[in-house]
């Protein structure tokens, strides 16, 4: 016997209550404990003990939620209302140890496990990029190795910093070593800026990524770049990880390690929309550091990325 379809509970309408009022959940959605099931959960991970430069991403989830108040429900580009097509809810923040990285990684993984094992897909709001590792550990338990589409100015496949293996510059090397990612299908998008040596790039390829450098966006039509990415991931389960520093500092100043020469928010949002043709299982948006933000520029970009990811999930089966 199939259970009756339950109409999703959407956000408070901006027609009923001004958007600057009401709940401080993402997009003024209901909390997870207010609905009978959660199809897609927004999960905050306020952790930034892994940063190598500017701190402050621990305040990212709250800042992105604040900027998400301005979102409206219907997505005309994808022709979908993600909040009416599935139950989206705010799962709050993971309580993680700000002093002990190893313990925090376990806390984040267990929180992700509790949602993913119940059939909920996640849009994780970081936090620094360290948090992608425990989320991928949890994802791999559900789906096996996944195609990782990693938007970032940086490779994040370095080995250690000051001898430490778990930092925001190392999550994808650890994920590859642990067998969490599909080495035939993963990709970096938006790579740029100086690196430590040419070996960084060759080592990265062995870990299973191909890089699409930011400079390619100046000469290659966006459709061609999108086709390359979709061809690489194919029909595999896809995890999208968005370091907001993939955007040019003009579009995202509020981040920990900014690099000039990045994508525009228009290019990033269009690339995210293309995953409506892929099998998106979960995603994260990380490295929003509000103390360096101005006029919510970075948080508006991040909340729009989250909205497009939700819209993509509404278009695609899990
Ligand atoms: Mn980065
Ligand atoms: Mn990163």
Description:
The chain has 318 residues and is an alpha/beta fold. The protein has one domain (26-315): Arginase, Chain A, CATH 3.40.800. Helices cover 31% and strands 15% of the residues. It has ten helices and eight strands. The chain has helices at 60-67, 82-85, 101-116, 132-143, 171-177, 199-206, 216-219, 222-233, 265-273, 297-315, and strands spanning 40-45, 88-93, 121-126, 147-151, 186-191, 209-213, 237-243, 279-286. An eight-stranded parallel sheet has the order 2-1-3-8-7-4-5-6, sandwiched between helices. Helix 3 (101-116) runs parallel beside helix 4 and helix 4 packs parallel to helix 5 (171-177). The longest helix has 19 residues, at 297-315. 53% of the residues are buried. The chain binds manganese (II) ion (2 copies). One manganese (II) ion (MN) is lined by residues 152-154, 243, 245, 257, 287.
Chemical compounds bound to the protein: manganese (II) ion
Name of the CATH architecture? 3-Layer(aba) Sandwich
Major β-sheet strand ordering: 2-1-3-8-7-4-5-6
> How many β-strand runs?
8
> What's the shape?
globular
Number of helices: 10
CATH superfamily: Ureohydrolase domain
Key traits:
318 residues, Arginase, Chain A, eight-stranded parallel sheet, binds manganese (II) ion, 15% strand, 31% helix, alpha/beta, 8 strands
Topology, please?
Layout: E1 40-45, H1 60-67, H2 82-85, E2 88-93, H3 101-116, E3 121-126, H4 132-143, E4 147-151, H5 171-177, E5 186-191, H6 199-206, E6 209-213, H7 216-219, H8 222-233, E7 237-243, H9 265-273, E8 279-286, H10 297-315
Parallel strand pairs: 1-2, 1-3, 3-8, 4-5, 4-7, 5-6, 7-8
Helix pairs in contact: 1-10, 3-4, 4-5, 9-10
The site of one manganese (II) ion has 7 residues, from loops.
